Amino acid sequence: METCLNPAWTGINERTFLAIKPDGYQRRLVGEIIRRFERKGFRLVAMKMMQASEGLLKEHYIALQNRPFYDRLVKYMSSGPVIAMVWQGLHVVKTARVMLGETNPADSSPGTIRGDFCVDVSRNVIHGSDSKESAQREISLWFQPDELVCWQDSAESWVYE
Ligand code: DAT
Ligand code: MG
Fold this sequence. Notes:
The protein is built from eight helices and four strands. The protein has helices at residues 22-26, 30-40, 54-60, 70-77, 92-100, 113-117, 132-142, 156-159; strands at residues 15-20, 43-50, 82-88, 126-128. 2'-deoxyadenosine-5'-diphosphate binds at residues 64, 69, 73, 103, 121-122, 124, 127, 130.
């Protein structure tokens, strides 16, 4: 039975939206970043490489529209390829944020993605949803429902009791 069809997206079906930003892509960090989430035990349920439009990114970052860096942020995010992904698992929203580190790489601990791979807040290599509500909004903004793949996870009983 495919559990990823559960519309509640709770428990082990919780989902988050992650995107490797154009700097992460240019700096060849795609494999390294995906590897971290795979090894953690999370399940990849959607992924695409794309160059996002300014329109999509303005909507994605709508909550920041009054910030002075908003226009530069949208330009940077639309300037090259991104890897848009949906990951699933228990507490994935919160845990992914921990794995990302703080918004400013200078505040991010070693061992986190931003702590290990970047120095400038405006080039912080990866996006991750900050709440379950944001995750639902961002997943439906970036993906069509049929782009989410339901697959039988043979490792599930080794990741969860
Ligand atoms: P996060 O990406 O950690 O969720 P956010 O949602 O507050 O952070 O901001 C979105 C992105 O905007 C962030 O990843 C990088 C950029 N940003 C945030 N604060 C900034 C600042 N003070 N100067 C320049 N860019 C900033
Ligand atoms: Mg954010």
